[in-house]
Amino acid sequence: MDHRNDIREFLASRRARITPERAGLPNYGGTRRVAGLRRAEVAMLAGVSPDYYTRLERGNLTGVSDSVLAAIARALQLDEAERSHLYDLARAANTTARTRRRPARQQIRPGVQSLLDAMTDAPAFVRNGRLDVLAVNRLGQALYAPAFDVPGRPVNLARFCFLDPRADDFYPDWDDAASTTVALLRTEAGRDPYDRALTDLVGELATRSDDFRNRWAAHNVRLHYTGFKHFRHPVVGRLDLAFEAMPMPADPGLTLTAYSAEPGTPAWDSLRLLASLAATTAQTDDPHQAERP
């Protein structure tokens, strides 16, 4: 990943989607040679000189102030995720470049695993920004059974989505799941462009998947804290579940995700069935399980 290139393509792609009409500028007709706004028009809307904005869009965010970033964000009509991404790109540009590094292994505290295990009615797991699943409860592992049915740990949800043929059946709306996956990785890359493990993962996926490579080039980012997710489980069938994704302040970089279903719905019944099957499987694997308190 080239940080200056990421800045350049992100700003250019956001500019390309804003029409003069959408920006509130007069359109005098004629043929425009660029998609969306011209650089000079963005500069005018942001209150900076065309030369200065051109410097920014060429990938140089060194020394840029928060007020200028805010003005650029308004001119390009960035949403919350895109605005945060722009600030992350600027923060990285103003940080002394570091050698590509492999971050220290993220440890799951015993209390976190105990919390997951106590959530018997909700599939739940803890992941990092690269979408490695670092801890999971029994129902969460049962829900993501196809992803866990591979050798090697930690399970990586991005690899599963793009490199495992079963993902197409597991996600009924695979296109949306794939776009969300890439947007989360792109967001993480803005936060820490020097994460060697993330760079290696992106390189692997881009080499092995045309779908990933095309989505990565779009520079879309997303905040993914709440919403609904749809699954087609190989045993219990369709599951439409609400989710909450909660960053863990005591463990920076980690996120706890939990799913739930409305009582009385088909998803609730299927989730209860899945929990029962998971408990039965656990007792079969460990005959002493039923004897334990």
Give an account of the 3D structure.
The chain has 293 residues and is α+β, with helices and mostly antiparallel strands. The protein is built from 15 helices and 6 strands. It has helices spanning 3-16, 20-23, 39-46, 50-57, 66-75, 80-93, 110-118, 138-143, 145-148, 157-163, 167-170, 174-191, 196-208, 210-216, 266-285; strands at residues 124-127, 132-136, 155-156, 226-233, 237-247, 255-260. It has a 6-stranded antiparallel sheet with strand order 3-2-1-6-5-4. It starts with a helix and ends in an 8-residue tail after the last helix.
Summarize the structure.
A six-stranded antiparallel beta sheet has the order 3-2-1-6-5-4.
Helix content: 40-55%
Q: Write down the overall geometry.
A: elongated
Major sheet attributes: 6 strands, antiparallel
In terms of per-residue confidence, which ranges show pLDDT below 50 for 5 or more consecutive residues? 286-293
Strand order of the largest sheet: 3-2-1-6-5-4
In round numbers, the mean pLDDT is 90
- Let me know the number of strands: 6
Number of helices: 15
| Sheet/helix structural class | alpha+beta
The radius of gyration over CA amounts to 22 Å
- End-to-end CA span: 51 Å
What are the salient characteristics of this protein?
alpha+beta; 293 residues; elongated; 15 helices; 6-stranded antiparallel β-sheet; 12% strand
